[in-house]
Amino acid sequence: MRIYILRHGLAGEADDPAWAGRDNERPLTEKGERKIRKLAKALRRRELIFEQILSSPYVRARQTAEIVAETLGLAEALGVSEHLQPGADHGKLIDELAESSQLQNVLLVGHEPHLSQLMSLLISGDLQGVALTLKKGGLGKLRVEGEIQAGRCASLEWLLPPSPLKGKR
User: What integer pLDDT is reported at residue 14 of this predicted model?
Assistant: First the structure.
């Protein structure tokens, strides 16, 4: 299984009083939407196809996942996982992924530091074992050989900030 991990795009500021107590409702900004559309087009040019796209239920992550799914023509692959929201149990997310172990390519869309901790756990067996940070719109790729489990089961193939995926095509 190849697990692609995408942090949501640029969103409204967390300290904006408009979102006080409603962090889960912060949407992507116009700039955030534009950048995610460019990313999604770059994924399409590279012919990446995901059999499953799982998103955090937070608005900004769902919008990010929806843009990618729409651009790639994969609306039927799109789903929401409560286990991708900030502070969720990594073990439950891993269990959810294990249920889909027959899939080749899965995209997870969520938040920091939850995603970096997940990557660290799968690579090293420890939430803090590997120091990683995904920028907004950043994308990583893990390869899992064998069974996915809450421990060392994956290798990091690459980790990209948004800018290397830009293209003029």
Answer: 77
Is the distance from CB of 3 to CB of 155 less than 8 angstroms? no
- For the chain, what percent of residues have pLDDT higher than 70? 96
Q: Is 65 exposed, middle or buried (0-12, 13-18, 19+ CB in 10 A)?
A: buried
pLDDT in tens, 45-66: 999 889 999 999 999 999 999 9
pLDDT range class, residue 9, cuts 50, 70, 90: very high
Residue 109 backbone dihedrals phi, psi, to 5 degrees: -120, 120
Query: In whole angstroms, what is the distance from residue 133 CA to residue 80 CA?
Result: 23
Handedness of CA 57, 114, 97, 53 (dihedral sign): positive
Q: Per-residue b/e over 33-53, b at no fewer than 16 CB within 10 Å? A: bebbebbbbbbeeeebebebb
Query: Does 92 have pLDDT greater than 80?
Result: yes
Spatial neighbors of 13 by CB under 8 A, at least 6 apart, are: 19
Whole-number Å distance between alpha carbons of 118 and 94:
9
d(CA 24, CA 127): 23
DSSP structure class, residue 87: T
Q: How many residues does the chain have?
A: 169
Enter the pTM of the model: 0.94
